[in-house]
Amino acid sequence: METKIKPISLDSLQEAKNIIFSGGVVAMPTETVYGLGANAFDDGAVKKIFEIKGRPNDNPLIAHVHEDYDLSKIIDYDPPYAKKLREAFLPGPLTLVYPSKGRVSPRVSCGLDTLAVRIPSHEGAQAFLKEVNVPIVAPSANLSRHVSPTSARHVFDDFEGKIPLILDGGECVGGIESTVCDVTGEIPVILRPGLITREMIAEVVGDCEEYTLVPDGGKVRSPGVLYKHYAPRCKTLLFTCENLENAILMYMRESLENKRVAALCEEKRISDFEKIGAKTLNLGKNQAEMAMRLYRLLREAEKICDVLIVVEPTEKEGVMRGVMNRLRKACTSEDVK
Asked: N or C: the chain end with fewer CB closer than 10 Å?
């Protein structure tokens, strides 16, 4: 199969629509990361998503719809506070988990009675979703547990020859996946942190909890909460900012073993590594930059080094909860120093 990368146009949207309604898979841009899209009503197409990605079959998918789509077609109950959240943040990087009507393929929610729904703000994503006018399940367009893609080229690197079309919408500006928020209870509960923070949600609806761990024996209600995720294909060692000296020593130790080593850290830590002549990757100086650059730099790292030394950013709250969530999942527990 030839994999084509095409800019979003009337012709490429028509081609994408034909693929979707033929039971195929199309990669699409969003403001956060690129997604691997299929018709949520087509059980065979949804199955292809899991097969192409190598995705565990207990990891649910998110249904993407355009801003004018009638949610009552697919959700069973729409609490008043969920409407307030949509008015405040959507279209945008927020996924809401509703009680499901069971109309989509049962593979989408992995047997749960809920459905995660997102309305992306990316102009190209909206054009595609309006063209097909059906919910499109679209997990990140990367091989399972690999670094999520923020460009069409990243998608091509993982899926050349496996999918027919990648709609090129440019570089993603958000950089990390959407916040996932459960709205099936009395108050919203964040299941996966992202660009829309707990504080932002609480300001709109009065309260919000955050619960990103799955209890023993519990079922996964959101993507991105199990397994090692977002990992580059190189050894990745994560250090706290308080352990900067240990990170520098590790860099020197790995370098002495003739390994290609790089250091990933926030801008204000770059000079500490440059003093020893280290190869550095600048994560940025503020929350927005760090979120936007994270996946691009992790993918760059796997091409230029054998060992990546990562120093956690100083700030941990707000959007950085989402950044830290991804960083920690990119490293195995024994890597954390």
From this structure: N
User: According to DSSP H, which parts of the chain are helical?
Assistant: 10-20, 43-53, 80-89, 123-132, 152-159, 198-205, 244-256, 270-274, 287-304, 320-329
As a whole number, mean pLDDT of residues 116-123 equals 98
Distance from C-alpha of 170 to C-alpha of 166, rounded to nearest angstrom: 11
Amino acid at 8: I
In order, the DSSP letters of 247-268 are HHHHHHHHHHTT--EEEEE-GG
Q: What are the CA-CA distances from residue 203 to residues 82, 108, 121, 307 (Å)? A: 13, 31, 21, 42
Measured in degrees and rounded to the nearest 5, phi and psi for residue 26 equal -130, 135
Which tokens in the block code for residue 189?
Answer: 């509960």
Decide if pLDDT at 226 tops 60.
no
Sketch the domain layout of the chain as residue ranges.
Answer: 4-210, 235-335
pTM of the model: 0.92
CATH topology of domain 4-210: DHBP synthase (3.90.870)
Q: What angle do CA 113, 142, 212 make, to 5 degrees?
A: 45
Measure the CA–CA gap between 254 and 251, rounded to whole angstroms. 5
Pairwise pLDDT comparison (337 vs 150), residue with the higher score: 150
User: What number of other Cβ atoms are within 10 A of residue 190's Cβ?
Assistant: 23
> Residue 28: beta bridge partners?
35
Among candidates 74, 78, 61, which has minimal Cα distance to 180?
61
Q: Are the C-beta atoms of residues 91 and 120 closer than 8 Å to each other?
A: yes
Please state which of the four CATH numbers 3.30.1330.40, 3.40.50.11030, 3.40.50.720, 3.60.70.12 is assigned to the domain occupying 235-335. 3.40.50.11030
